[in-house]
Amino acid sequence: MAAKFERIVYVPFDHLNFDRGALKAADPASDLVVLVESKRMTEGRPWHKERLFFLISAARHFAAEAEARGYTVRYLKAATTIHGLTAARKEFGELPIVCAEPSSFRQFAQLKEFGVQFVENDLFLTSRTDFALWAGKQKRFVMENFYRAQRVRLGILVVSGEPVGGRWNYDAENRLPPPKNYVWPPHLEHERDAIDKEVETELGHTATKTWATTRAGALKQLDYFIERHLAEFGPYEDAIAADEWALHHSLLSPYMNVGLLHASEVVDAAVAAFARGGYPIESVEAFVRQIIGWREYINGMYWFLGEEYRELNGLAANRELLPLFNDSSKTKMECVRSVVADVEKRAWVHHIPRLMVLSNLALITGTNPQQFLDWMREQFIDASEWVMVPNVIGMAVHADGGKLMTKPYAAGGAYLNRMTQSCKGCFYDPKKRVGEDACPFTTLYWDFLDRHAETFSKNHRMSQQVFGLKRLTDLPELRMRAKQVLKGLDEATI
């Protein structure tokens, strides 16, 4: 049997693409396709079951499609990936193994040690080599500079090197609060087939109909976004609405992160819609920026910054993960309760609840960055290692001392009152810093600045906020209230 095949093509669960990676040049007649469902991946951590359902079902559907295309496929369950690949070699002989470059440092090291041969990971628009060439020339790693360079390099929404519409960035137009009495389009639901139901049974989990688990379903979601959401995407992308969990966000990140969609086809669909007319540049540019700007930038920075980056803790934040992160009933803060409840239900919220509610709370409470990173990795359906490490360590909790972002994204109740609809029915008052009903975000925001005043006073983007501490006449009372709030959060009474 070993003579039948010339090599093993290993397909990780985030490389589910026949036109990219190692499968791009594969031959059904001579290549054995192997996928490994490892216990380490499924049972090694308290993963959100919606996340596990999506990853496992998508991989099993992909394996079935590979067989339908004429490949011989081994979908193996094993203790680890290496155990699975060892079993494949035991069955088919000591064949060489090829794989696209893995998406994390850990997997890269494990597979390299096992002797796996790598081809370039082309599931992104910017190779790791090209990104390193760009980053190596920068004094500061400004995403906007990278984004504009990629627009020109890829020829996206540019004419003769200049941006369509005359501006590179329409971010200022896209910060509107959630509108009143706005009618949101219904969500696209994905029906469950036999493979889905098999995975549900194994996990003891009834999945939502939010997430597709096939390439066809992912394409349907892309078409639905373009048709029903793209035009209005921009204005409210930074809002948090009480009556709508996704707003006009695309819900495409899980599919791109596992390979079911490629960034190029997603961007092409948006640009083609703009060319047809009826889609404002403010929305189209904002969506394109999320993909060829932020997504590509974050992946590039993950590899450029190195493996040790994930362990940084520049603000010496050592508080244990708050109980409310694992149970939405453990807090009276309505914004936090509702966001964590959404995570519990679907393993997803959009970028502003992640940054300005969950991460903001971790930041201003001094929660340990690595514990918060682990929680984000475990809970979110699109939480690949390369995504979460720079986003959490660099952007969310400023644990890198400003390598990625020049200022911490800390905010008090005033921001949340402006951009969410949570404060009206909440026990806490966003306008108050002290007192039993003072908003914990407001109290802890000022306490955070107070605790790190010496550090942030040297930051030109933070000096004005730190100077604001001098105007507080109730600073002693605030410090005392902050201690009470932190104790209450630890004990799940606030």
Describe this structure in words.
There is one protein chain. This protein is an alpha/beta fold and 494 residues long. The protein has 3 domains: 2-119, HUPs (Rossmann fold, 3-Layer(aba) Sandwich); 128-305, Serine Threonine Protein Phosphatase 5, Tetratricopeptide repeat; 311-490, DNA Cyclobutane Dipyrimidine Photolyase, subunit A, domain 3. The protein has helices at 39-43, 49-68, 81-92, 105-113, 128-135, 143-154, 194-203, 215-228, 230-233, 253-258, 263-276, 281-305, 334-346, 351-365, 369-379, 385-396, 413-419, 440-451, 453-456, 463-467, 475-490, and strands spanning 7-10, 31-38, 72-78, 97-100, 117-119, 158-159, 162-163. The strands form 2 sheets. The protein has a 5-stranded parallel sheet with strand order 3-2-1-4-5. Strands 6-7 form a two-stranded antiparallel sheet. Strand 6 and strand 7 form a beta hairpin. The model has no long low-confidence stretch (mean pLDDT 96).
Outline:
The protein has 494 residues and is an alpha/beta fold.
CATH superfamily of the largest domain: DNA Cyclobutane Dipyrimidine Photolyase, subunit A, domain 3
Identify low-pLDDT runs: none
Rg of Cα set: 24 Å
Count of the separate structural domains: 3
- The helix-and-strand class reads alpha/beta
CATH class label of the largest domain: Mainly Alpha
Share of helix, binned: 40-55%
Beta-strand level of the residues, as a percent range?
5-15%
Question: Taking all residues together, what is the mean pLDDT?
Answer: 96
The arrangement of helices and strands along the chain is EEHHEHEHEHHEEHHHHHHHHHHHHHHH
Strand order of the largest sheet: 3-2-1-4-5
Summed up, the helix count is 21
Major sheet summary line:
5 strands, parallel
| Strand elements, count | 7
